[in-house]
Amino acid sequence: MNRVKIEIAKKTLDILNTQSFRNIDINSVKNFKNQNLIKTKKDLLANINNFFDFQLKENISSIETSTSKDMLFEILMVRFDILNCYRKPILKLVKHFQSNPKDFVTFIPTLIQSIILMLTLSNTNLKGFKGAVKIKSLFILYILTVFVWKNDDTESLEKTMTALDKYLDQFDRIKKVFD
Fold first, then answer.
1. Is 129 exposed, middle or buried (0-12, 13-18, 19+ CB in 10 A)?
2. Which of 42, 46, 89, 158 could form a disulfide linkage to 16, CB 3.0–4.6 angstroms apart?
3. Contacting residues for 147 by C-beta, under 8 A, at least 6 apart
4. pTM
């Protein structure tokens, strides 16, 4: 991810600290350097998500190679730790998506790319129909975990970790059917 896109993501997140997503003016994050990079609010959302993926890749080097489930747990918790650093703006986005489901539907392909990234980083086989089922299953698991994270006021994200572990047990059962 290039420096300009990182700046745009950070600026968008900063603006979300004080404004709702609906009230963000796309021109408020544009400057002469990035006029062609961001054209729509959908681009803003994708850029924020790509920024989180970039940070995830930067922060997973310490994860030990182990079972796919354990690695996926660690990777997802790194992602939630990243989201937690931007908790207020992310909660505003979640609230926006809850009241504007059409916007969420248009965001799904971008989020699916993140799901694929996390599964790939956990050494999960994604080939064929079985891979598609795993991607869709983890997508649902991720959304469910976001709603737990949203209400998790513990400093160490204890509630999120517990829910994620439970959901990954279910995901592991689904995976075994398709492996």
1. exposed
2. 89
3. none
4. 0.92
